[in-house]
Amino acid sequence: MQFPESWLREFCNPPLTTNELAETLTMAGLEVEALSPVAPPFSKIVVGEIKEAVQHPDADRLRVCQVDVGQGALLNIVCGAPNARVGIKVPCALVGAELPPGDDGKPFLIKVGKLRGVESQGMLCSARELKLSDDHGGLLELSPDAPVGKDIRAHLDLDDTLFTLKLTPNLAHCLSVFGIARELSALTGAPLVQPHYPVVQAALPDKLAVRVSAPDLCGRFSGRIVRHVNTRAATPQWMLDRLARCGQRGVSPLVDISNYVMFELGRPSHIFDLEKIHGGLEVRWGKPGESLKLLNGNTIAVDDKVGVIADDQAVESLAGIMGGDATAVSDDTRHIYVEAAFWWPKAVAGRSRRFNFSTDAGHRFERGVDPSLTVEHIERITQLIIAICGTAQTACGPIDDHAINLPLPRPVTLRVARAAKVIGMPLTQAQCADALQRLGLEVAHSEGVLTVMPPAYRFDINIEEDLIEEVARMVGYNNLPTTPPLAPITPKLPLEATRSAFAVRHALSGLGYQETINFSFVEESWERDLAGNTAPIRLLNPIASQMNVMRSSLLGSLLQVLKFNLDRKAQRVRVFELGRVFLRDASVRDTDTTVEGFHQPMRVAGLAYGPADALQWGRTEQGVDFFDVKGDVEALLAPLLAAFEPASHPSMHPGRCARVILNGRAIGFIGELHPQWRQAWDLPQAPLLFELELDAVLTRSVPSFRPVVKQQAVERDLAVVVAERVTHAEVMAAVHEAVTGGLLRSAVLFDVYRPKPLREGETAPAAAQVHQGEKSLAVRMTLGHDETTLTEAQIESAVQLVLERLKDRTGARLRV
Fold first, then answer.
1. Any idea what DSSP says for residue 668?
2. Any idea what DSSP says for residue 566?
3. Which of 227, 314, 315, 540 is the most buried (most CB within 10 A)?
4. What's 480-541 look like in SS3?
5. E strand residue ranges, 477-572
6. Average of per-residue pLDDT across 555-567
7. Cα separations (Å) of 744 from 53, 711, 778, 798?
8. 3-state SS, residue 660
């Protein structure tokens, strides 16, 4: 909200400077977002009156003016403004005056000069030249009663400051200059000037028939008829200035009066052209099929969720938001109907956003406007209408007030001990009562408890915490003591056998992956297709229609990131995410960190796509495959050793998917994207994916120290022929089981051989050792003992044990 400081000080004028005033409001919760001067600095500009204006002898667009500036002698000033004429009063810059800086940032100095041979002893100014507005259509015309020779800054009150407040939704009572003054009076103790509502005597018996059919929409509706008004009258300059300084441009006198009272008292109102109303008015909910052309030119369709004011023929106004074009006042309006109502906040909230616009009226009504002063505010509006638009025939009818369903105030109690505990400083009951009474609240005392009856304009006081906040505001947030924590603080050290999530991020980053952060809300099709989840957890109020379920897997989010990058011509993508997934689990109970019926574990997932290596010269480009990503997973889990076994997953290729086993427990999956989903996502090639439980990834073995082995190790290579179905894991398990006693230090597969497929009609050589459907695996074993050097007999015995175990477990035979 924006307003001039001078207007605020008319209601409450504490002995504070502008900056102190802003600090006081900000520390009370009314954040002053900006302070800006009404006008930039300039000097020696006074009110001047043009006494004579004749055509310049050598220029068609210039006039030579004789200007009275209150110095006795008239000044000869050459002016090119189209509206320069005898009798008007305008700002006149005297010789030596300094105008606001121009586009070059330098001030403009006025000197005696000649224009086309005629001496000019000053300059007549436009509003744009004084940086008061962007209007450059001519000289700034002042009011006829402006005193000649008076400094223009004093005459137009330009030594003023604009306050811009950033108010939270609970401060609806501060959406007016008087409301802010009321707060300022409570904060500083300065007297508050109460607004005066003189009663305008009714000279007519006329009333407009009004029926309120929706008490849940409108709690009070007041109005009065005013006849024979002059809508062609000019809005007073003082009112236009105040509206402009509140960010509102002048429209017409009646509209300006309505806006002025809204900024002054916080009461939005509406003025109808009485002759355009057919019959009476009905306040009701809209009906499907009805439409309304608004004052902003938009035509909207209303329904039973939108409140309206209608006459006997059509809808005429959008209740609490904006009037209709059909009954708008114009220059031809003679008789008017002034309306002020109380609209229930819940009946107005969100309606204007539904139609893609917002209004000052809707902004106030959806937060709550005082229902008790509709009659008084109509009196204030009537007084201004008569003063500005009144004629000799102007007469008004009585105020027709319909109070149907007003909010019932409910007492709210405040425990003094509770307030002291929440605020964090000792408070007495007298201090709390004084703070609340300064705000104009009725307070009843009992032992240690205050009972407050909220006034009609305070819609934000409903519970004890609201009163505690008011006490804290009045005490002053800057006066709260700085108290160190009193609870004992014991650092919680992580177990040595774990690592942090940051370490996991660091490890994946070192492997060439980039972290992504995605929404936990995903498309339902992702859950069905990629996670096999046919009953996902649905959101009651999704932020978007396509993000209506909670994810149970991170893979869909990574595929979306991949697609986004491929659409932007990325060739190589490596991404990962640490995030939470959401699973149904009836065994979960409500605690501080869990929700009953839902398991929310953390997982880490990654995706690799494109070449295995970044562009480089040392190796031929090769696409990433299963074993590349398997190596990344092994590096992530190191020094723990994971096992991989064939498995199936809804999102992965049936023959290129493995389950990751760690310490005998399945912790996730790794594999290539299923061809069906590759086609559905329109991917040129299949990405490789993995998803693991984060808790398992965070586990690590505690390092243990042992001396360097002094005895030399020996190596033996062993090549065996096995069936194609035999896996690497089965072979390595048999090797490790065969050699006991700690003699086997390591075993590594270093060669795989498969015979070439036979052509049609071709037979395998008789001497071939590896037949079709078989493969040769070569394993290098490193043997050694910590205490002694191995003998040849011990080495040969270990090799024979390995051969026998391979034969028993896999059906292997020695390749010679």
1. E
2. H
3. 315
4. CCCCCCCCCCCCCCCCCCECCHHHHHHHHHHCCCEECCCCCEECHHHHHHHCCCCCCEECCC
5. 514-515, 521-522, 537-538, 549-550
6. 95
7. 114, 14, 16, 9
8. strand
pLDDT score of 766: 61
Record the tokens describing residue 528, joined without a space: 């069905």
Structure tokens given for 564: 């986004």
Cα gap 504→604, rounded to integer Å: 9
- Which amino acid belongs to residue 316? E
pLDDT averaged over every residue in the chain? 91
Confidence of residue 402 (pLDDT cuts 50, 70, 90): very high
Instruction: Show the beta-strand stretches assigned E in 563-638.
Output: 573-580, 583-584, 598-599, 602-609
Task: Please write the tens of the pLDDT for every residue from 672-709.
Answer: 999 999 999 999 999 999 999 999 999 988 888 888 88
Rounded to an integer, what distance in angstroms lies between the CA atom of residue 360 and that of residue 367? 11
Distance CA 64, CA 115 (A): 10
Rounded CA separation 730/722 (Å): 11
- Phi and psi dihedrals of 815, rounded to 5? -95, 125
Q: Cβ–Cβ contacts within 10 Å for residue 17, how many?
A: 8
User: Tell me: the pLDDT tens digits for 494-551?
Assistant: 888 899 999 999 999 999 999 999 999 999 999 999 999 999 999 988 888 889 999 9
Q: How far apart are CA 576 and CA 689, in angstroms?
A: 10
Residues 402 and 208: beta-carbon distance below 8 Å: no
Tell me the C-alpha distance between 757 and 764, whole Å.
9
Q: Name the residue type at position 202.
A: A
In the block, tokens 């409001």 appear at: 25
Residue recorded with tokens 């209506």: 548
Mean pLDDT, residues 721-730 taken together: 90
Cα-Cα-Cα-Cα torsion 547, 550, 555, 559, nearest 10 degrees, comes to: 10
C-alpha to C-alpha distance for 344 and 518, rounded to whole angstroms: 39
- Cα–Cα–Cα angle for 754, 759, 761, rounded to 5 degrees: 130
| Cα–Cα distance, 544 to 537 (Å, whole number) | 15
| Dist. CA 613–CA 511, nearest whole Å | 11
Structure tokens at 324: 């209709």
